[in-house]
Structure formats: C-alpha cells, structure tokens
Amino acid sequence: MTLINPVHIVGGGLAGSEAAWQLAERGHDVVLHEMRPVRGTAAHKTDRLAELVCSNTFKSTETTNAHGLLKAEMRALGSMVLACADAARVPGGSALTVDRDVFAAGVHDRIHAHPRITVVREEVSALPSPGIVATGPLTADALAETIRARLGIESLAFYDAIAPIIASESIDTSIAFRASRWDKETMEGADAAGAYLNCAFSRDEYEAFIDALIAGDQFTAKEFDAVPYFEGCMPAEEMARRGRDTLRFGPMKPIGLRDPRTGKRPWAVVQLRQEDRGGRMWNLVGFQTRLRIPEQQRVFRMIPGLENAEFLRFGSIHRNTYLNAPGALTPHLSLRDDATTLFAGQLTGVEGYTESTATGLLAGINLSRMLHGSAPIVPPPHSMIGALYRYMREAEPKHFQPMNANFGLLDELDTPTRDKQIKRERYAERALQAIREWMTAEAITPVFEHASETTSV
Questions:
Q1: What structural domains and CATH numbers belong to the chain?
Q2: 406 pLDDT exceeds 60?
Q3: Residue 331's closest CA among 305, 366, 306?
Q4: 74 near 361, Cβ under 8 Å?
C-alpha cells in the first residue's frame, strides 16, 4: 500500500503506539517505524510493539494518587494503551498491574489491524516532518546524533543521575534553615536568607547516617543499564564508601554556613535546592543514588529535618537518553524551527509508563490539530498532564532532569487544608474538572471510549 503524505512515527513503544492510534483514528495515514527485530536492544526480548521491559505495573488507579489521577485524565482523553492495560489486568490491589504478554499483544494487534497504520521494521536516523519521535531511553546512536546535531550538543543527555525530591510541607523548618554559603547565591524571589534549605548534622548524627548509607541495599544494574559512574554524578553511597569524610568534604560540606540553633558551623550539612517556582518541591543536592526505594525512605529520613519526608521522586542512576525539554523544545514538545516534528515518551524528560503514554497521546492530538490547520494546545496546569508539560516548559534548563507525575507539580488549592486525603481529593476534583472544561473548549473528542476503569482478570 502506498500512502499519500503519511505521518511518520519513529518508535513503537508506549508513546509511539498511542500517538499512532490517536492520529489514525483522526483520519491520518500513519507509518510507524520500529527498528526491532532488524536491530534489537539489550532490554527488549520480543518484536512486539509496546513491550514492557521493566515492571509490569502502571501504578495506582486511585485519583488520590498522582499516577491514578493522570490515568483518569488520559481515560477522559481516550487512551488506547490504557484500554489495553485494563484488558490485560491481573490482581494487584489498587495498582494497574498487567500480564505483560497479554498487554503487549493487545497493543500490537490493534496497531497492526488498523487500516490507516502501516508498521515498517527499520532503523530510522532522520527526524520526520510531519511526525513524532518516540524512541525512548534506548534511542539508537545514529538518531541520537541527528537530534544532537539539530538541537545542539547540550540538548541531549545519555546518562541520568537523579537525586530525590521532597515535598516542602513535609520538611521540618524548625530544623532545616534557609541559607546560602557565605550568604551568596540568593535566588530572585527567594527568602532573603538564602536560596537553599540546609539540614545540619552533629558529628554523631553524621556518623550514623554514613553507616546507614554504606549498608543500604542497592539496585543491581541490568546489562543495558550498566553505565560507568562519572565523578560529577557519583552515587552518594559510593562516595561514602571512599572514606567517611568524603561526603563531608563534598556535597555535605558545611563551610560558609551556621546553624541558627547553635550559632556554630555544623559538622556536615545536606542542602536542598528549590525545584519549582512555587517552592513545593526540594531536591537533595548531590544525593543521586542506587539505593532501593525502601532504603531511600529509611536512610534519607535520618537527615535532620527530614524525619517525616514525603518523597515526590526517588533517586536513581541509569542509562537514559532524554532531551533538555525546557532548553530545546516548544511548549507542545516540538522542534522550535518545525512545529510538526514532535517528541514523545521518555525522550522528552518524563519518567514512567503512564507519563510516557500521556505525552504520546497529546503529541498525536496536537499533530492532528496542526495538520488540520489548528494551533497546538497544552492541557491546563491544574491537571496532572498539564502540570507535567508545564514542568518541561518552565524548569531551569541548567538543572533539568526527568520527572514523574506527583502532586508537587500542581498549584496549591485556593483553600488550603492540612488533611492530606482531603487535599488530594480536591486536587483530583479540580484536575478532572479542568480537563473536561479544556476538552470542551478545544473541541477534543476522545477516539477510544473506556467501558470500565476497574476491569480485572
């Protein structure tokens, strides 16, 4: 079959499959390029589209959870991938856990059966226009080099060292204090006392923390994820193993700071850097880590002032390819010199199955709009998907790192409450109302109806 002026999508993962479906259902002929099995990866085992290479869970379905709220928004928008996940669901409590083979087969079969979609098995090294690039964290070298040449050498990262992010309301500010070393680096709009929150350690507290850090249980890297440690992003636990004072003379150095509780320089300090404009998310500076999630919770809550820390993002170090979205892309995640070449999936700087799929869904909607003569759109920031897009638009390019869905991305409620359950219920209510109103205003019609959100096998 010869297609006239088709849309080209590069990458047959979650985002690429979702984008292909959205475009085809809106009347566009689509060519979906997937390099497997012509060229395999170290992670994939089959040639199926949308193969899950890590966990088999899409996380929570409850709207009082950030991942569940994002799913509810995507269902309202008509996500095909989520429908396939629902159909492949296995018992997993409130989490959307799937039989990975049934799920991949469901997406694979739907895509191949669609009369407007042609799947081509080949490696692509050029950027499509019009089209969508959704090649994920294992983007092939040739295409990665094309992207880097087009966007600039600083626009593409190949190695991901992420520190945990803590919710501001869970930080004990009677212990953590605002200050910058020698009173420098005060941020515009920040408290006059300084740009950082500082958690001061006594000598005994530091020694206990180092012991816990060294003994912590770590993830063991898979072959495709086994990357060398660079000095600039060494895991905190590896630094601690180099010597008990390595951290104290590195990211935990107390020089230029005084603890207001004692009036003296602390033995060591963990600094937190503001991650968002609203000051609701704080990054543990220098604490990229391979510790398992329960260990991160246990060890990092030993930091004075973080005893009740709520983690909005956990730390990690892994092989990844992602764009510096705020520095290189438009608000709808396209090239700045070609609005009809869009990016989707983990390549854009989102983390997680649901987040990746969401960007593919919106990329498909936006490219269809532009091909029909309308302007691209971005969901409202009160929604979870809109908040993710805002982060990728407004984050500081110098410090940009991949982000997952979390409530710290959302604006505060007009009427604040201390009750977390009530707060999250109100976030969800506001978000879903915002999505519905936005869809009506922009005349967005879902192309896939969800019969049930609780289907289980």
A1: 7-160+320-441 (3.50.50.60), 165-314 (2.40.30)
A2: yes
A3: 366
A4: yes
